Amino acid sequence: MKADSIRFSFQIPIAARVRQFAAATRQLARAALPGQCALCGNLSQALLCGGCDAQYWNEQRLRCATCALPLAASYLRREREDVRAHCTACLEAPPAFNDTLALADYRAPLDTLAVELKFRARLAAGAEFARHLHRVFEDSGLPRPDVIVPVPLSRPRLIARGYNQAWAIAQPLARRLGVRSDASLIARVRHTSAQSRLDLDTRRRNVANAFAISGDVRGRHIGVVDDVMTSGATLDALARAFKFAGARRVTNFVALRTPKD
């Protein structure tokens, strides 16, 4: 017993020193051997070089405040007091979620980052999306969520992919917002077909009753994170599940938004 306690007391400091040394080595390697910008291919110590980082995140787009669908500039009339524009679809049939923040349209070159994150496990892209989503949120005037959750994957899809790309954005975003992230709060209880292959009505039927809440969300403001928003059917189904369970508000944080449903 005495020998075990002595051995245990030495293991922790050694392990800590090893981790510190490994982290310092990685940091030194990054500084000495910069990689390539994910968009233009130029040398860069970050995921994006300074030029691409400054150019592609500053897209001036008037978007629906509810679903983030791009709107024509003429849509916002000068005499209108409410500067938060809403698309016709959201005015006529409001979705269950309250707001959506999106960084940019799903198109070149930023769609490359979404593809790299989703299919090639380039998790640094998730942190990059989170950094800019935090900036957009700080400029939005919206209330801060109580908890951040990712759009869940079904168990078969999670096993096949090995990770959830939405969780790679949700975790660093929650840290920046200073709120809790929880991937277990909602689960996809029914495996569904890929939404990208379906029309709008089929998408809605596809995700109906596909989610289940596993925690107490009564009176809470939920922030839902996804990499790409297309029709909004999945996010609407998620928001409906949260609202049915008693959530007060649901705000979507999406990296990229398709210009049309």
Automatic annotation (TrEMBL):
Pfam families (alphabetical): Pribosyltran (PF00156)
Superkingdom: Bacteria
UniProt xrefs under InterPro entries: ComF/GntX_DNA_util-trans, PRTase-like, PRTase_dom
Domain Phosphoribosyltransferase: residue ranges: 168-255
Family: Belongs to the ComF/GntX family.
Protein name: Putative competence protein f-related protein
Native organism: Caballeronia insecticola
Organism taxonomic ancestry: Bacteria, Pseudomonadati, Pseudomonadota, Betaproteobacteria, Burkholderiales
